Structure to design on (245 residues):
């Protein structure tokens, strides 16, 4: 089934410790405006030190950097060079749009009005990412990393961690994968936000309740609706916050 994984689409839901291959992903980037609504980011939130997991070819980092904000993006796709990523976008764009067309009844065409509108929004975001990528890597804003592996960052290095269309959505990766991934996010972040809370079939993810049960004794857990809903039912956000001692 077609679905977006972070800011790109996985052809397979199986992630192993084998070498990450570019041909296993279908890049699909979102912009800063979408991030703000998906993650319910206030103006104060945007001034915090942010790390975003599974960012793929999103323009969030680029747009935030232009505004003088601090964002570090993590993704295994960043091991490749600009031309390789750009070529993969060109190879897969039409397939994504065709699959969305074939499943268009599963989406709400309100903010995004049509498939041509969606293509324009996504390509604009990904083109901005491509132009920023090489400079961003040199500046340390784009870091090659794959969850649930431990990052290079010290405890509580960031105020806010984000995960879009990856964790919780890919329930098939298993509960252990999710607990380890979220634990690493919480190690380096004071607060994390995960969106959406669906699985690949558009239903509430089967790992959600177990994730909440695992973390609720040590962290504040909140679920609330956001104004972003492109996939039907995909309008809820999970927020996990470190308790103040």
């Amino acid at each position: 089934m077609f679905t977006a994984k972070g800011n790109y689409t996985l052809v397979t839901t199986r992630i192993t410790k084998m070498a990450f291959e570019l041909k296993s992903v279908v890049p699909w980037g979102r912009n800063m405006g979408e991030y703000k609504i998906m993650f319910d980011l206030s103006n104060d939130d945007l001034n915090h030190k942010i790390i975003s997991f599974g960012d793929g070819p999103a323009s969030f980092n680029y747009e935030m950097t232009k505004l003088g904000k601090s964002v570090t993006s993590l993704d295994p796709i960043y091991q490749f060079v600009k031309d390789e990523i750009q070529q993969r976008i060109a190879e897969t764009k039409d397939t994504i749009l065709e699959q969305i067309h074939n499943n268009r009844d599963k989406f709400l065409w309100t903010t995004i009005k049509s498939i041509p509108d969606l293509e324009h929004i996504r390509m604009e975001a990904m083109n901005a990412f491509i132009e920023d990528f090489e400079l961003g890597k040199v500046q340390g804003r784009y870091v090659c990393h794959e969850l649930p592996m431990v990052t290079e960052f010290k405890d509580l290095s960031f105020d806010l961690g984000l995960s879009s269309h990856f964790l919780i959505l890919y329930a098939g990766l298993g509960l252990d994968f999710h607990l380890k991934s979220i634990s690493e996010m919480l190690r380096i972040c004071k607060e994390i936000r995960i969106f959406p809370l669906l699985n690949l079939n558009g239903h509430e993810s089967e790992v959600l309740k177990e994730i909440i049960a695992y973390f609720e004794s040590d962290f504040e857990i909140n679920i609330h609706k956001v104004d972003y809903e492109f996939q039907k039912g995909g309008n809820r956000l999970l927020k996990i916050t470190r308790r103040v001692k």
